[in-house]
Each structure stands twice: as structure tokens, then as C-alpha cells.
Automatic annotation (TrEMBL):
A GO term, aspect molecular function: ATP binding
Pathway assigned in UniProt: Cofactor biosynthesis; thiamine diphosphate biosynthesis; 4-methyl-5-(2-phosphoethyl)-thiazole from 5-(2-hydroxyethyl)-4-methylthiazole: step 1/1
Protein name: Hydroxyethylthiazole kinase
Gene of this entry: thiM
Classification via Pfam families: HK
Top-level taxon: Bacteria
Length: 259
């Protein structure tokens, strides 16, 4: 059975501690691909959700003390139950508050994948001091930098930009699907981070799951732009394209180069 068909059959439960900019969009995107999302950010239910989810997504966008605490609790509960955890370290290096919590997550939670833009990945690698802001791309997407981060944290890295890099520290794929209109709406990266959730829940090899997720998302963006007039109409068109995406379309349109 194809990966998307399996997601539609399993309806994986994706627990998201995400930011309020992305929350509604990410929930809709997850429903569109066939997953079942929950968004919550209180530390009081993070452990319970972290124990029963099929994947957990930790997104540092609009960070608060409570959200940081909830992320650590959910991440640890997921680890204890063998549930994959995805980290989106938004604007790492930008403030001490978020950098410290991101470092605490990185050192105490085992991650299935880190999904971030190329600038954020460079900060995690130590080759750049700060990722400017949540929406910025300030850096060429360098596969070697992504590989360094994957090795450092023993995880899959999904480093996004015009070309997305997916690596587990050994294997590297350049994923070329996508559309620049993704840059003209907010939270397209946040939705992608949540979107990786259902893929790591149904594909055991998280590197392959990452490739399939970014490629599917990129193809949906390309198909959406066949209908959209600009950023405003692109958002619903992207949700439509995610809803109608199939494994056959992914096979037909995928542009993946393994190095
Ligand atoms: N120049 C580009 N051309 C085509 N697609 C792009 C380009 N830049 C980014 N993308 C795509 O946009 C999506 C989001 O990636 P991006 O690197 O912008 O994440 P981000 O900065 O974390 O986003 P956000 O903070 O807005 O949620 C990815 O699917 C990526 O492939
Ligand atoms: C704009 C914005 N601010 C905090 S999170 C977020 C969404 C994109 O990262």
C-alpha cells in the first residue's frame, strides 16, 4: 500500500504543541492528508497526549514558559512510548530564552526529525549565530551543514529552502518539488513540520518518511499554484491539493536526487 493511502487508512493521531500563527493552518493541513490532529499547549495534558499520539510535533514559534515545559513533558512521554517526535526550532539563536529551551529539548528528547529552514539548521550546526526571524531564509541550503546537524543529534534533518535537503547523516536527498509562493504565506514551514508527523508514523525509515513528506508537500504546492491567483487563494488551494493528493501523483511528479 502507498504511504498516503496508509495515512488515510490509519488516520494517525498527531499531537502538536505549535504556535498560534500556524495552529489552524497546520490542523487543516493534517486533516487534508488524512491525519487526525490535536493542538494543545498546556503542560497539564502534554504527558497524556504525548503517551497516546502516533507522532508528536514540537514547534517553538510563539514560545512561552508553559509551552516550553509542555514540550519537554510531551517529548519525554513520547520517547518512553516509542512515539516519533519532530522538532521545529523556529528562530533558534534569536533570543536566549528560545535557544535555551531548544537546547534542552535537543539534549533530553530523542528526535525522529528536525524540520527547519536552512538558516536555522546552520545555527544548530554552529556555522551561523542567529536565525533572523520565524519566516526568514537567510542561507543557501548546504547538504553538508544539514548532515552535520543530523550526526550531532542522531536524527533525520529536513532543511528547507528552494531545494529541500533530507539527511540522516549518511544518506542525503535533494528534494526539488515546491513553489516559491510558499514563501508568500506565513507558517508554510510550520505546516510542513506538522505534516511530517503522519509520514514518520507510517514509514519506519524516518529518512524515507522525510523525503516522502517534503516531496508530497512540494507537489501539492505546485498543483495548488495551477489554481491560485496569489497568496490569498493559494492557502485554500494548497489545502485542496493536499486533500486530493495520491501516491500516484507523488510517483508521477516527484523530483528527488539522492547524492
Ligand atoms: N525559494 C523557494 N522556492 C520554492 N519553495 C520554497 C522556497 N523557499 C522555501 N520553499 C518551501 O517553502 C516551505 C517552507 O520552507 P521554509 O524554509 O520557508 O520554512 P520556514 O522558514 O520554517 O517557514 P515558516 O517559518 O514560514 O513556517 C518548504 O516546503 C520549502 O520547500
Ligand atoms: C510569523 C510567526 N511568528 C511567530 S511563529 C510565526 C509563524 C511562522 O514561523
Amino acid at each position: 500500500m502507498g504511504v498516503i493511502a496508509k495515512i488515510k487508512e490509519d488516520k494517525p493521531f498527531i499531537f502538536n504543541i505549535t504556535n498560534e500563527v500556524a495552529s489552524n493552518f497546520a490542523a487543516n493541513g493534517l486533516i487534508a492528508i488524512g491525519a487526525s490532529p490535536a493542538m494543545s499547549h498546556t503542560p497539564r495534558e502534554a504527558k497524556d497526549y504525548g503517551e497516546i499520539a502516533d507522532a508528536v510535533v514540537l514547534n517553538l514559534g510563539t514560545l512561552t514558559e508553559d509551552r516550553g515545559e509542555a514540550m519537554l513533558k510531551a517529548g519525554k512521554a513520547a520517547n518512553e512510548n516509542g512515539i516519533p517526535v519532530i522538532l521545529d526550532p523556529i528562530a533558534v539563536g534569536g533570543t536566549d530564552f528560545r535557544t535555551n529551551i531548544i537546547n534542552e529539548i535537543l539534549t533530553t528528547v530523542k528526535l525522529a526529525a528536525i524540520r527547519a529552514n536552512a538558516g536555522e539548521i546552520a545555527v544548530l550546526a554552529g556555522t551561523l549565530d542567529e536565525a533572523k526571524g520565524p519566516d526568514s531564509i537567510i542561507q543557501e541550503n548546504d547538504p553538508e551543514i544539514a548532515k552535520t546537524v543530523a550526526k550531532k543529534y542522531d536524527t533525520v534533518v529536513i532543511s528547507t529552502g528552494e531545494v529541500d535537503v533530507v539527511t540522516d547523516g549518511e544518506r542525503i536527498a535533494l528534494c526539488k518539488n515546491g513553489h516559491e509562493m510558499l514563501q508568500n504565506i506565513t507558517a508554510s514551514g510550520c505546516l510542513l513540520s506538522s505534516f511530517v508527523g503522519p509520514f514518520v508514523s507510517v514509514v519506519d525509515d524516518f529518512y524515507e518518511a522525510g523525503i516522502y513528506a517534503v516531496t508530497s508537500y512540494g507537489i501539492a504546492a505546485e498543483l495548488a499554484m495551477e489554481k491560485a491567483a496569489g497568496p490569498g487563494t493559494f492557502i485554500p488551494a494548497l489545502l485542496d491539493a493536499l486533500y486530493f493528493l495520491t501516491d500516484e501523483k507523488v510517483e508521477k511528479y516527484k523530483q528527488v536526487q539522492e547524492l
